[in-house]
Amino acid sequence: MGDGTVTTVSSNGTYSFSKPNRPSITLLAGLGVEGDVHAGVTVKHRSRVAQDPTQPNLRQVHLIQAELFDEVAEAGFEVAPGDLGENVTTRGIDLLALPTGTRLRLGAEAVVEVTGLRNPCAQIDDFRHGLLKQVVGRDADGEIVRKSGIMGIVLTGGEVRPGDPIAVELPAEPHRPLDRV
């Protein structure tokens, strides 16, 4: 599995679908992105809080591969980094193919452990009508394929900037494929 690059970082202190791009973000161990509305030890996504506010936050950091934006552009959808609410936009790594437990070293210090797939919701169609069909599909076996990025928890904090390298450390075998979190 090759290494990649951080292309964009984004965060928002208030609930909104998209997140503004930033010159850098700071990841905080066990919490997420400093100042971001989804940072915390327990769940912050509104639907999860409604179910059980004491659940551990397995969605501290949201990463999307820039290659998804290239793919949806071919279908006529203009989507920019941060538009889908991700914190880190990457290039050069097939994030969706990573197994659960993969560690991503972002820049000099930060380490994020991959917990699962983002489950895209209908808000994506509110952002761009018809986009949901582009980021959720079915494979040859009829299984649902979620393409709107992956989620992770911060193991080691640090500053992350566009241009930072991303090193991929796969977990021990047997690998477990990503599932929605």
From TrEMBL:
Protein name per Swiss-Prot or TrEMBL: MOSC domain-containing protein
A Pfam family hit: MOSC
Protein source organism: Streptomyces roseolus
Domain of life: Bacteria
Residue ranges annotated for the MOSC domain, each copy included: 20-169
Record InterPro entries: MoCF_Sase_C (IPR005302), MOSC_domain (IPR052716), Pyrv_Knase-like_insert_dom_sf (IPR011037)
PROSITE patterns: MOSC (PS51340)
